[in-house]
Structure formats: structure tokens, C-alpha cells
Design brief:
556 residues, six-stranded mixed sheet
Length: 556
């Protein structure tokens, strides 16, 4: 039980001539662990939604999907509900009840199980997933990682033969994401459940895969073992190679004849082998001269904040400053106060004690027009919060409604921005029909059209592929050079390490440490890059893939 056969599957959305799925043909065997990857907008989510008929999007479909030899459309809804489990990208979109134990029981109750069977399954799942400590909590009290784990446990309580996950860690911090993915691996390994997972964090998940399916513009580019997929993408010089795990990218950048490593552990052994018998002549790269930034434009002075009068403090005695032209990143676990801090800088939240200053002026003394007409631009964690129109083009034009420009000038500006963020072929689509990565790019375009002096970004790389991350960094660096100040909250350690100037660690409502980015990440155990963990025994200060490649080449 648990196999899929896809035969010549083609699909296009209403009003679109572009094929979202282009003649897909492959088989997923019972018990396989399959990782689905590709650039954002390549059709991953569209394909996964075709594997369960209640989630299949509206549009023109051709071809067939077989589940255990039976056409998917011929399977009754009860069988699909119990046998095909599906975990969505956003944990809040899947929770339907108020308390943890209710959520665990909900699916079983819907399938008509008796009370004793439900109690047994719920207890079993709570034990397997380590939920006992928060079993009686209200779901609103849970962190993002706990909510996603609860969604997974609720699905597994129905004992499905297939588990489908659509970028399940996109909103989780690195440690919560790692723990979640370890649980998914355990389900495949110990229960024999077929796992089909779409994921951008390939460092964690690719080594566990039996097969990797790479999609490109709706078509299946390759479907093979992880190491063979990495070699194929490198040979083809395909942009998806930038999404491969750090050990694969570093291996490809250093001349050698050894087998390709997939994990950090294998990568450490590989580096030791290629440098065997040699004492590294160069352990550190030449230090880069510190950048000269302007005066502070954001200052938080002893700021305290809580959501309810008698509630807990979320931000506690927080003080820090960001200088003009600086790219300042904030990392830390879910629920530590990072997003709340961005909301304080943008005046969505107001502190009950302390001051927030923008360009030396208290934030409360700015009018809304002064604040959001060229001073502040905010990209929220949920990009859908910015969309108000029926098409992407109308949505982008809406942000220019207050500007004294002709219709032709507005259209020219909008289409220039759309081209910059690579959504020019999506302008006629409804924003909600876009993939997660495409929505993120459309929301970014809308924010950038404001031409802000200060840019606040909450998880800007969420759902975005490795290739566009490089493009995003180029866009932000160009803004920096024109004097724009960037404050970014992110779980994307690799992106922060490679591009930002300063990094701060948030814990329990405050910044526990901050510093120049490379120095910051070189000293951490978990909040650091795969490249650093892989090479620190020889090159402790190497943080990015490029650092490790350069040092390996210099020492060979």
C-alpha cells in the first residue's frame, strides 16, 4: 500500500496558456522517501495537490494518476482521507480545533472510530511525537514548530500509507525544522510510510531520500538517487544546482576524484581525505575591511511590550540601533519576539515602556503618510496580507495610487519592477493562485514600489528557490548602495551568513549577542551554516560554501 503511478499528467490553470504540469510520467514505489524540488513556481505544489482529489486545483487536466493500481478519481473520500495524509505549508491553515488533544482526535472522529480506539490512537501519537507535555494546551499557545508537529501527529493518527508534505518547514526556525524533518524520516524508516515531500531545505532532507524529483517549468527534469541528481545538475550547469546541499556544492567546486558527500558528516570526512597528510598552510581567509555606515536610523531604547495587560512580556528591555545603509539580520527560535520587534519598528505594535526612534524622531510623532510614503517599507511574514486586487498587475498598480503619475508611467514602473523580481509572466493571475515563492516575489515587488528608505523584511526567502535567493540578494545590495537600511528577520542561516553585514541572536524577548556576520556564525554550534559545521575542524572561520571551496583549493 502506498504507491503512485503518474501517467502523462498535464495541467493548466484557468485563463493561462502556460502548462503548470507538463506531461509528467513516473512511479513512486511503496515505502519510498521521495523529495520533490525545483524553482518556486515550477509546479511542485500543483503536482502534490493532484495526489488528493479534494485538494486538486481547478483547471484543465489530462492524464491519469493511479494509487495502488486504482485510478485516484475512483477512490472514495473516506479511503483517501485515511490513506493519503497531507501536511500544508502554513501550520495555521490546517488546525481546526481549539485544544491539542481535540486536534489529535478530530480526524479519527470524522472517520467514525469508536471512543476506545480514538483514545488509544491519540495516546500512541502523543507518545510517539513527544506531545505529552503540551497535550492539554490551547493551540493558540503553541509555537510554529509545535503546531506543525501537531498537524503531522493528527494525520498519522489515521495511519495513512502515504504522507505528503508541502514545504512543511518554511515557517520554522532551523532547530525546529531539523527536529520536524527527523520525525518525518523516523515515520518513513520505522513505520514504512511512503513519504513525498516538497522542500527547499535540502541539506537536511536530501540524504534521507531514496529518489529526488527535480521539476523545471512544470516538467520532470530528472528522477534519480540524490548523488546522481547532484552530478546531473552540475553537468547540465542547471540553476537548481544552487539548491543542492552544501557538501554537494563544495565537492563540485574542488577538483577531486572521491565519491560525492551528501551529509555534513560525510563532508567532514571528505575534506579530511583530500587534505590527508597535509598540514593546512592557510586556515583563514583575508579579513574584509569593515564597511563604513552612516548615522543610526533605527534606535530602540529599553523597549518593553506585551500583547495583553496581564500577559507575559514578549519584548523585554530591548535596546539596539541600525545604521544607515546597514543590512541587519535577526535570527532565533520561533516565539522569541523577532516578528514583534519588526512590528514595533513599523508601529503595528506600540511599546508600553521605552522609545522607538526613526532617523532620530520618535515613531509616534510621524503621521501614517510620513511613515509609509517613502520612509518605511514592510514585507510581512504572510505575503497574502498585502494582496487586495484580482490580478497581480492591479495589485502592483494599487500601491502607486497616491503617486502623481500618468497611467502609462505607473504601468511602466510596475512592469519594470515585475521584470526585476521575475513575475512579469504572472501579471494576469490572481495573487492567491501563485505558488508560495511567487507570492513572496509579488509582495516584495509591491513593497519596493514604495521606494522606502528603511526596509523591514520578515522571512523574505521563505518559499524561494536558491537561484532567486541570489537575485534577491543582488536587489537588496543594490538598494543598500543607494543608502537603504535593511532589517531582516530570517530562519535562513545560509542567506544571512552570505549576504548580511550584522547578525543578532534573539532569545526570550531580547538580543543576547550580535556582531559582524562572519564572526557571529563562526562561533555557533547550531545557529551556523552547514559549510561551517563541515569544515570547522580545519577552517574554523570558514562560514559560506565559497569560503570552504577557496580554502580547500588554496591548500591543495
Amino acid at each position: 500500500m502506498g504507491s503512485f503511478t503518474i501517467k502523462d499528467l498535464t495541467f493548466s490553470y484557468p485563463g493561462s496558456e502556460r502548462l503548470a504540469l507538463d506531461h509528467l510520467n513516473f512511479t513512486i514505489q511503496n515505502g519510498d522517501f521521495v523529495v520533490l524540488c525545483g524553482r518556486s513556481g515550477c509546479g511542485k505544489s500543483t503536482f502534490l495537490r493532484h495526489l488528493k482529489t479534494v485538494l486538486t486545483p481547478h483547471g484543465k487536466k489530462e492524464g491519469e494518476i493511479f494509487f495502488d493500481g486504482v485510478r485516484l478519481e475512483e477512490l472514495d473520500q473516506r479511503t483517501q482521507a485515511s490513506q493519503i495524509g497531507y501536511v500544508l505549508q502554513n501550520p495555521d491553515n490546517q488546525i481546526v480545533t481549539d485544544e491539542v488533544w481535540h486536534e489529535l482526535a478530530f480526524g479519527l472522529e470524522s472517520l467514525g472510530y469508536d471512543t476506545s480506539a480514538i483514545r488509544l490512537r491519540v495516546a500512541e501519537m502523543a507518545s510517539f511525537f513527544g506531545i505529552q507535555g503540551w497535550f492539554l494546551k490551547n493551540v493558540t499557545e503553541l509555537s510554529g514548530g509545535q503546531k506543525q508537529l501537531l498537524n503531522l501527529a493528527s494525520i498519522m493518527a489515521m495511519q495513512p500509507s502515504v504522507l505528503i508534505l508541502d514545504e512543511p518547514t518554511s515557517q520554522l526556525d532551523p532547530i525546529a525544522a531539523s527536529e520536524f524533518l527527523e520525525t518525518v524520516k523516523k515515520i518513513n524508516r520505522e513505520l514504512g510510510t511512503t513519504v513525498i515531500i516538497s522542500e527547499h531545505r535540502l541539506d537536511e532532507i536530501l540524504p534521507a531520500a531514496d529518489r529526488v524529483a527535480v521539476m523545471d517549468k512544470g516538467a520532470l527534469l530528472c528522477y534519480d538517487r540524490p548523488s546522481d541528481v547532484g552530478s546531473y545538475l552540475k553537468q547540465q550547469q542547471h540553476e537548481m544546482f544552487l539548491a543542492m546541499p552544501a557538501p554537494v556544492q563544495i565537492y563540485a567546486g574542488v577538483p577531486n576524484a572521491l565519491p560525492c558527500p551528501l551529509t555534513v558528516r560525510d563532508g567532514r570526512n571528505w575534506i579530511t581525505q583530500i587534505l590527508e597528510g597535509k598540514e593546512p598552510e592557510q586556515e583563514k581567509l583575508q579579513p574584509i575591511s569593515p564597511k563604513d555606515f552612516g548615522a543610526p536610523v533605527i534606535q530602540m531604547q529599553e523597549v518593553w511590550f506585551k500583547y495583553e495587560k496581564k500577559g507575559q512580556d514578549i519584548v523585554k528591555d530591548l535596546s539596539f540601533s541600525v545604521k544607515q545603509g546597514e543590512w541587519y539580520s535577526i535570527v532565533g527560535g520561533n516565539g522569541t519576539g523577532k516578528t514583534t520587534t519588526l512590528n514595533l519598528i513599523s508601529r503595528i505594535n506600540r511599546p508600553y515602556r521605552g522609545k522607538v526612534l526613526l532617523k532620530g524622531k520618535e515613531i509616534g510623532k510621524y503621521s501614517d503618510k510620513e511613515l509609509f510614503s517613502g520612509l518605511l517599507g514592510v514585507l510581512p511574514q504572510n505575503p497574502q496580507a498585502l494582496f487586495v486586487k484580482k490580478t497581480v498587475e492591479l495589485d502592483l498598480l494599487e500601491i502607486l495610487s497616491e503617486r502623481k503619475l500618468s497611467k502609462e508611467e505607473k504601468l511602466a514602473e510596475v512592469h519594470e519592477m515585475a521584470k526585476l523580481v521575475e513575475i512579469d509572466d504572472l501579471m494576469g493571475m490572481h495573487p492567491y493562485d501563485l505558488s508560495g515563492g511567487e507570492q513572496q516575489r509579488a509582495a516584495l515587488a509591491k513593497v519596493l514600489l514604495l521606494k522606502p528608505q528603511i526596509l523591514l523584511l520578515d522571512e523574505p526567502t521563505k518559499g524561494i528557490d536558491g537561484f532567486f535567493k541570489t537575485k534577491l540578494a543582488e536587489i537588496l545590495q543594490k538598494l543598500q548602495r543607494s543608502g537603504v537600511t535593511i532589517v531582516m528577520v530570517s530562519h535562513d542561516i545560509e542567506f544571512c551568513a552570505k549576504y548580511t553585514d550584522t547578525c543578532a541572536m534573539f532569545f526570550n524577548g531580547n538580543i543576547v549577542t550580535s556582531g559582524e556576520t562572519k564572526s557571529f556564525f563562526a562561533g555557533n554550534s547550531f545557529y551556523t551554516t552547514s559549510a561551517n559545521r563541515m569544515a570547522r575542524h580545519l577552517f574554523p572561520d570558514a562560514v559560506t560554501n565559497e569560503d570552504v571551496i577557496e580554502l580547500c583549493r588554496n591548500n591543495l
